Amino acid sequence: MRNHHPSPSLVVSVIALIVALGGTSYAAVALPRNSVGSGQLKPKSVKAADLASNAVSSSKVKDGTLLAKDFKRGQAPAGATGPRGPAGATGPQGPTGATGAQGPAGAKGDKGDPGDPATDAVSVGGQRVTKIAYRAGAGAASTVVFTGAGLTITASCVSGEIALTATTTSKGSIYAFVATDADYATPLGADFENDTFDPGDTFDLLAAGTGNINVTHFVHDTLAGGVATGTIAANEVGTSQCNATGHVIAG
């Protein structure tokens, strides 16, 4: 029988395999404990799968090296509340809103009390000066043009004829008047009542003068000391209008 010898290449391959297997076994059983450190490891070569469970504990971590992003949400405790920041700038004014619907009308109020007669009065040295300015058409109702110091003067334009009538609220008053026709300076009438002018009494300040401009000057004095004195001019414009103007001083 013929002998077959292995080829040189086969011999080299077998020797290489034996050396390789023998070197690996030696490395696995011959490395001392803790002989492999950071210097023996290739950077970034150790992966999470290479670490045993719970192999990395607090004692293995350098203080101050972990960041907030290294923790799961809710694991790290919340820090103290920081100081309040400065107020922001005022924003621009917003647009004007639409006009709202009109509300319902309120209930009608009660009728007010009648006002005092219209006057144009000022006080001078403790005396009240009242301006008389009466204008009325024919048939106008009587109008009080002055009241004060116990005296009341009423104007009317009945049938287009001017009339000025005086009454008193003080018993035993004194009054005196002179009425003249301004066109002819002719006295139309004069009267004087001493302590006999009482409430309910009346006197005609124009002494029934009509047509032309009539002027009356009068004085009224009460027992209580109230005094009213005045001058009033009156006339008629045809039969359609009556006018009276002047002043009364009372105090």
Blueprint (SSEs and pairs):
Blueprint: H1 8-30, E1 120-124, E2 127-137, E3 143-148, E4 151-158, E5 161-168, E6 173-181, E7 186-197, E8 202-204, E9 214-221, E10 227-237, E11 241-250
Concise summary:
The chain has 251 residues and is mainly β. It has one helix at 8-30; strands spanning 120-124, 127-137, 143-148, 151-158, 161-168, 173-181, 186-197, 202-204, 214-221, 227-237, 241-250. The strands form two sheets. It has a seven-stranded antiparallel beta sheet with strand order 1-2-11-10-9-6-7, with no helix packed on it. Strands 3-4-5-8 form a four-stranded antiparallel beta sheet, with no helix packed on it.
Note down, in words, how this protein is organized:
The protein is mainly beta and 251 residues long. It has a domain at 120-250: Immunoglobulin-like, CATH 2.60.40. It has one helix and eleven strands; from the N terminus they run αβββββββββββ. It has one helix at 8-30, and strands at 120-124, 127-137, 143-148, 151-158, 161-168, 173-181, 186-197, 202-204, 214-221, 227-237, 241-250. The chain has a seven-stranded antiparallel beta sheet with strand order 1-2-11-10-9-6-7, with no helix packed on it. β6 (173-181) and β7 form a beta hairpin. The radius of gyration is 63 Å and the shape is rod-shaped. The protein starts with 7 loop residues before the first helix and ends with a strand. The model has no long low-confidence stretch (mean pLDDT 77).
